[in-house]
Write a structure and sequence with these properties.
The complex is a heterodimer of chains A (400) and B (326). With 400 residues, chain A is an alpha+beta fold. Chain A has 19 helices and 13 strands. Chain A has a single domain, classed as Cytochrome p450 (Orthogonal Bundle), CATH 1.10.630. In chain A, the strands form four sheets. A six-stranded mixed sheet of chain A has the order 1-2-3-9-6-4. In chain A, strand 2 and strand 3 form a beta hairpin. In chain A, helix 12 packs antiparallel against helix 13. Chain B has 326 residues and is of the alpha/beta class. Chain B folds into three domains: 92 residues, Translation factors (Elongation Factor Tu (Ef-tu), domain 3, Beta Barrel); 109 residues, Nucleotide-binding domain of ferredoxin-NADP reductase (FNR) module (Rossmann fold); 86 residues, Ubiquitin-like (UB roll), CATH 3.10.20.30. In chain B, helix 3 links the parallel strand 8 and strand 9. Chain B is globular, with a radius of gyration of 20 Å. The chains are: A alpha+beta (400), B alpha/beta (326). Chains A and B meet through helix 4, helix 5 and helix 16 of A and loops of B.
């Protein structure tokens, strides 16, 4: 196999610039069109934005290591701000943790949650349907996961107020230590300490995912420290992303009234609408991998030790994969294969829970809301790696 | 309401038993030729045939011959101690020169293209792996086989495989010498772009499934052979699936999955690995009984029979119609 090598396109624009973050897609399209692999001067890392290259980096976990962390700096070279998570480890350390987590979160355990997860969605959407409009983020997307997910993990009420700020820290740390990062870490120590306390065995109820993860310590599969880290991973990865997933889905559907009408007629399509919305407005937009051995990707030489910034959200809009209408929402599209949950070894373990939460909220809203449309400009969140909104005002008409 | 007519009864082929060999203790290997002297239809690695036995039983056996020569087929049959007539009949009653009716080859264990492969076989579970090795070797892929068994004299084709591919690629692990397959050593370190194909007894596959939870989703492909030889075995008939949300009825032919059949009929099903592993295509069963072939549901879930993975699972033997919430 002979590959013609070429130099990467050089980009001076900073993907972590607040202006780019607020409206990322024009930049991402330029990045995708510039070539298979680009070099970002602002971060000193390579970048991949096409589906093919993103897929390759995600699935070749031997060449593209996670142990260097998901941020622009190699966490093995610095004093990391916290012990590495499952997301920041490679096999074989990753392997036992993944086994433990997959043993706990699987179709059987998640299915049992549909019952307890439904009433809070009914309650929230019933109240909102009585109004003429509401904020889809602050009144719904931010409320629902916090009502159901911490209970499913089985952590105490006390300290839950730290979950959102902590998640905000964890994900912002996958970007550079810029102003956004510093804002997120303003009261970092207090949030981190409170969440770590919630992860301890004695904090768990007896039936939740937390207790089941701790049971894997008794089985001898993982250590106590690993159990703490796995519960921490659930708590840090399981709330924000789902909030953004719900918010982003509603931001898309508010712009596509025909799709809403179609979904009202056929609410079993809700899960496809969520899937397509996740493709179009992926909550987790980007993170880094570390090149473990000298390699060639898309004809560009990458040296061991360098970082690659992986643009999931750009791959999910690559016209070479999704067609010329990749930037639009289509209920008829099969969005199977999108990388919003990652792909391969580190693919989101909580995916079935997140999908179910999003589907339940959407179905309950569809049942009670006849039409939904934007009532003012949505306010994007300025976040290093997550894509979502601070505020998304909508006006609605209630279903009769 | 469109209803496709069931096209039942898979084509059968009359064969003559060319030879009965005993490549290992308690293993009979049957070489079959077509009675009409024609070639067998081309088949894919991983395929099996139904064998129609004189006592009315139908049994499935994996093909373990070379796909290069379509003039003959070979199957390997283990005599199981509690056999109620399948393997015992093959061992005791079938002789060279006799005729045997079989089905055309079908594939429930297809080989998906990948850069690297890890094959794991337990005992007679080696049979479907043999044509796979031939295929990946011809394609120049990187691969290794771990073949475990009680002792060398019970392990069919072990010597043949070592001679063909060498001991670098073919690792024979006889329990009486080296102990059981060390799955921690083999599967404890996941590899990128490597698929795992495993065939063997339920206990071994359960342990492999557990280890593969630490691998990327979708890498593991398994075929469970029914060791106890009780009951009617897997359902080999086409069956109907009614989609309760639309009232549409589709026929699922023997060579396709429920997922493929309902997608062809225009229904939408969320799916991901299409290999019974990720659980994405879980579908509620309104009525009827499923034969679960996935690795995603727990045994309790399978017994409860309320949901199924439509990418691999099928209607149970004797259930000609499943009603699914689709």
């Amino acid at each position: 196999m002979s590959t013609i090598l070429h130099e990467p396109a050089i980009f001076t624009e900073d993907p972590f610039d607040p202006a780019v973050i607020a409206d990322p897609y024009p930049f991402l399209a330029r990045l995708r069109e510039a070539g298979s692999v680009s070099y970002l001067e602002a971060t000193g890392s390579y970048a991949v934005a096409g589906y093919e290259e993103v897929y390759e980096v995600l699935t070749d976990f031997e060449t593209y290591s996670s142990a260097g962390g998901l941020g622009p700096r190699d966490i093995r070279k610095d004093e990391a701000w916290r012990p590495p998570s499952i997301l920041e480890s490679d096999p074989p350390i990753h392997t036992v943790m993944r086994r433990a987590l997959t043993g706990v979160i699987n179709p059987g355990t998640v299915r049992a949650l549909r019952g307890p997860f439904t009433p809070p969605a009914v309650e929230l959407t019933t109240a909102l349907a009585k109004l003429q409009g509401f904020d889809a983020i602050t009144d719904l997307a931010e409320k629902y996961p916090l009502r159901v997910f911490p209970d499913a993990v089985g952590i105490p009420e006390e300290g839950r107020e730290h979950l959102l700020p902590y998640g905000n820290m964890v994900f912002n740390a996958f970007g550079p230590e810029n102003y956004i990062f510093k804002q997120a870490f303003a009261q970092g120590d207090a949030h981190a300490a409170a969440v770590m306390k919630s992860c301890q065995r004695e904090s768990m109820d007896e039936v939740g995912f937390g207790a089941q993860i701790w049971a894997k310590v008794a089985e001898g599969l993982i250590s106590e420290q690993q159990a703490t880290l796995l519960v921490r991973a659930l708590l840090s990865a399981g709330v924000d992303t789902t909030i953004f997933g719900i918010g982003n889905t509603l931001s898309v559907l508010a712009r596509y009234p025909e799709a809403w009408a179609q979904l009202r007629k056929n609410p079993s399509m809700a899960k496809f609408a969520v899937d397509e919305a996740l493709r179009l407005e992926s909550p987790f937009q980007k993170f880094h991998r570390t090149v473990a051995v000298d390699t060639v990707l898309g004809g560009v030489k990458l040296e061991a030790g360098t970082k690659v910034l992986v643009f999931l959200g750009a791959a999910n809009r690559d016209p070479r994969k999704w067609g010329e209408d990749a930037d639009s929402f289509s209920l008829d599209r099969s969005s199977s294969g999108h990388v919003a949950f990652g792909m391969g070894l580190h693919q989101c373990v909580g995916q079935p829970i997140a999908r179910m939460e999003m589907e339940i909220v959407l179905q309950q809203l569809l049942e009670r809301v006849q039409t939904i449309e934007p009532a003012g400009a949505p306010v994007p969140i300025i976040h290093n790696v997550l894509r979502g909104f601070e505020s998304l005002p909508v006006s609605i008409t209630a279903a009769r | 309401m469109p209803v496709t007519a069931p096209s039942f009864a898979p084509a059968t082929i009359d064969t003559v038993i060319e030879a009965v060999e005993h490549p290992a203790q308690s293993v009979a290997s049957l070489v079959l030729r077509r009675s009409d002297g024609q070639q067998f239809p081309a088949w894919e690695a991983g395929s099996h045939i139904d064998v129609h036995l004189e006592n009315g039983l139908i049994r499935q056996y994996s093909l373990c011959s070379s796909r290069q020569s379509l003039s003959e087929l070979r199957i390997g049959v283990l005599r199981t101690p509690d056999s109620r007539g399948g393997s015992a009949h093959v061992h005791d009653a079938l002789r060279a020169g006799e005729t045997l009716r079989i089905s055309a080859p079908r594939n429930n264990f297809p080989l998906v293209d990948s850069r690297k492969y890890l094959f794991l076989a337990g005992g007679i579970g080696i049979t479907p792996i043999i044509p796979m090795l031939e295929a990946v070797e011809a394609a120049g892929r990187q691969w290794v086989l771990y073949y475990g068994g009680r002792s060398r004299d019970t392990m069919a084709f072990a010597r043949e495989l070592e001679a063909t591919y060498g001991t670098e690629k073919v690792k024979i692990i006889a329990e009486d010498v080296e102990g059981r397959l060390n799955l921690q050593e083999i599967l404890g370190m996941p590899r990128a772009h490597m698929l795992v194909y495993a065939c063997g007894p339920g206990g071994m596959l359960g342990a492999i499934e557990d280890f593969c939870m630490g691998w990327p989703p979708g890498v593991l492909h398994t075929e469970r052979f029914v060791a106890n030889d009780l009951g009617a075995g897997g359902n080999t008939e086409p069956f109907e699936v009614e989609l309760s949300l639309t009232g549409t009825t589709v026929t699922v032919d023997t060579h396709q999955s429920i997922l493929e059949a309902v997608e062809q009929a225009g229904a939408r099903v969320l799916s991901s690995c299409r290999a019974g592993l990720c659980g994405t295509c879980e579908t509620r069963i309104v009525s009827g009984e499923a034969e679960h072939r996935d690795a995603a549901l727990t045994e309790a879930d399978k017994d409860a029979g309320e949901v199924m993975m439509v990418c691999v699972s099928r209607a149970a033997a004797g259930c000609s119609r499943l009603v699914l919430e689709l």
